[in-house]
Amino acid sequence: MQEYISIRIFVIIVFVHPWKTTKNATPFYLSGNNDMDERQKSLILNSSSRFPPPQGVRLSYGTAGFRADALLLESTVFRAGILAALRSLKTHSVIGLMITASHNKVSDNGIKVADPSGGMLTQDWEPFADAIANAATPEHLVQLIDEFVKKENIHFHGVRSAEILLGRDTRPSGESLLEAAKQGINSIVGALAIDMGILTTPQLHWMVRARNKGMKATEVDYYEQLSVSFRCLIDLIPNGQKIHEIEDKLVMDGANGIGGEKMEVLKKMLDCLPIEVRNSGKGGGILNEGVGADYVQKEKVVPQGFGFKDVGIRCASLDGDADRLVYFSVPSCDSNMIDLVDGDKILSLFALFIKEQLSVLSMDGNEKISDDYRARFGVIQTAYANGASTDYLKQLGLEIVFTPTGVKYLHEQAAQYDIGIYFEANGHGTILFSECFLSWLETRCNELSSKNQDTEQHKAALRLLAVSKLINQAVGDALSNLLLVEAILQHMGWSIHKWVELYQDLPSRQLKVKVADRTAVVTANAETMVVTPPGIQDAINVEIAKYTRGRSFIRPSGTEDVIRVYAEASTQEAADSLASSVAKLVDQFLGFGSPR
Ligand SMILES: CC(=O)N[C@H]1[C@@H](OP(=O)(O)O)O[C@H](CO)[C@@H](O)[C@@H]1O
Ligand SMILES: [Mg+2]
Questions:
Q1: Is the torsion defined by CA of 109, 114, 120, 123 positive or negative?
Q2: 559 lines ligand 1 (CB under 6 A)
């Protein structure tokens, strides 16, 4: 027996050797409780000594994980690997790790953790993420992990090993950071790292969710689910609705990132949607430079590769990791300005469509019949939502909730509804359906189809079910959102011009101000009000009061070392002027020369 145990331990050492990948690892046991034994501790000590943290830099798990210059990130990514493995042990579920810096410049990179639901890492674990990322020595790192493992009651003994799916975007730094993540994962006994290759961020989140729900979860399954549900929506379009104008092709800007490449694959499975992909990264363009959703939404000008030849055409821009989507059209050859359809207008289009289907579903002819299930339908926005969009949504009679910036807040809020639509103005968003509503919908659909195949009610139920499959339930997904937009525009018979005119955006301006310490700004009321430093909010209010329909707020960015200033007003000049006065206030109160 004694001999048997020592053989087992020997096998363990071979399997978890940090220089090797653990692709073939199987579950095994080190200790039967939530204490890390000496072997586990020395494994972390040894491997982490090869990833010293950068000097003089404090990293924080911000709005969307850790993000910084890629050269600073090896140690952080290694430690995020450890965190992901612990999270998997704790939840007995598959966890995701995505290496991306989204719309940031190509020299940056980042890492974020996908929780078992496919959503963002639970906020409860963020302080631990911050603490281990900044631990100065391997010894301190081990101490923090040891304390956390006890506090969270994480057991290293168990029938399931930890499993982490890894994805990365197209950044050149991704490969070496992936290796660092694997080594972090491999330094936790029983953890298995599975490299899923180069993916869009939403694909990785989708796979994590699908794996944990026991559903088909490969990349091919993802494309199949999207294309089949898209086809279903197209087949349900009322006869005669298709107009010529909208049958024109769509031109998509891939931000020289991963989205273009993936759309080329998806496109082959969509016979009913002509798409031309530009800025796919193959033609030598630089990731996110003068291209992509962030550039288009913030600058409101045509991205590189687009111009007067595209006047009047329906165009879409993705960001570098394909979780944001905006549409635009080029109104004339005379300038490089665009008509922008931002996340707020995508949200409005989705809300209109869902509302229409819900109302058809509850009617029989002209009579309201089905009161047996009242779907709670809500819309979630942030302070960056254009004021005109909020007015429009209110006028549709929808319930609107505001949260702080960051998908983790919006998603959490949307999950409170049977159907919750959330979007950031920058184009990140999705529609969440509750399990309860979906199971009611499936039953209703079966009832309706057994009675009569062709009723409007049945079609509305089928459409809602198709939307729930097309739209990514884990995070905002530019590819699936683009397909839903295309299906709805065809359903409504709308051109992009009709969509642009749904409401008139209030002119707005966003600025960034570098300050000595951005954490000095603390906000409240979904970031619409500054609590500290004292006095600045009153000064901002004085500026706002000078403008018709003036609105302005400031907040510290979670992804860049800046304070963001947002302003809107009745004219562009007024919005620009309000933004610049508020930026001056930020500099006065918080700039490098400010009295602190
Ligand atoms: C004004 C703005 O667009 N802010 C973005 C940006 O966050 P900041 O915390 O503002 O840097 O990146 C986040 C992650 O992609 C996104 O969720 C958020 O909406
Ligand atoms: Mg992104």
A1: negative
A2: yes
